[in-house]
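Hi Y.,

Following your request, here is the sequence exactly as I used it, all 315 residues.
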Amino acid sequence: MAKRADIGSKRLISLAPNAWVQWVTGNSQVRASQLLDAEFQWISRESDVIVKASSPEHSEFLILNELQLRYDQNMPQRMRNYVALAEEKYNLSAYPVLINILPPPSTVTIENCYESEFMGLKARQDYRVINLWEVDAELVLEQPLPPLFPFVPILKGGGSESKLRSAVQALRADQTLNQLEPLLAFFASFVLEIPLIQQIMRWDMTVLRESPWYQEILQEGLAQGIEQGIQQGIQQGVAQGIEQGIEQGIEQGIEQGIQQERRGSLERILKLRFSEIPVEISVRIQALTLEQLEELMATALTVNSLDEFTQHLPN
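Below is the corresponding structure, written out as tokens. Let me know if you'd prefer a different format.
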């Protein structure tokens, strides 16, 4: 079984570090010398990758790479903290870059700096933002830029069968890249039908489940679901007027929250693959137990039609 690092951020950047640092900085004279430890005291994140680089103009410096599945509004402060920790640890100036993989909701504004003011004192941290959906897929394949090959389907102009076949061909042409094929399949599933993807390339769920981005998709909404479940449980316990009721309510709330998250994940997978879900199927999903939901997650990823999935639903 592949380790997460095999198809995570650090693995991708290590495939072509010079091409990567030149791309994120927009400077063809920058050279990568070393991938550094991105773990700091109390903090360790798989999406953070630090590269020691140099250029004739700036000598040695750090490039801080933050790859996020989706942007969230805590990122400006996180980038500020990231820069401060890295510069303190390595005693080098830092060039921070935030790479967003999938677009956020239209109501969210992507910021490219952190700003704060307290008691007349101001703090500011700028960072570069790269949104992959704005990056031209054709240019990535032509340059080439191997770390971005798995993302081709979600790049600008990359959501076609022909572009997917080109990306598969590029991965298979280099033995060091072919293990990234399941990750390419995963991102292709956002824009193309699963049966077509399976015809073109290898779909390896064992490898794919180890991807931090796959795990993030599955866990999306878990915290919110648990929090809502706990609140509902506490309210039910208070209504009963006894301490035992509150404790039982919290336990039931956590379980309900996990079930709610699993229902949401299952419906998201089905919508991703088959567009709209009939109301009767959604109703039946709401009645499933946690064990049944977990079993059907794998089924939803492998069936070829919604009718086939329906056959697996308990009566």
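The chain has 14 helices and seven strands.

Thanks again,
Q.
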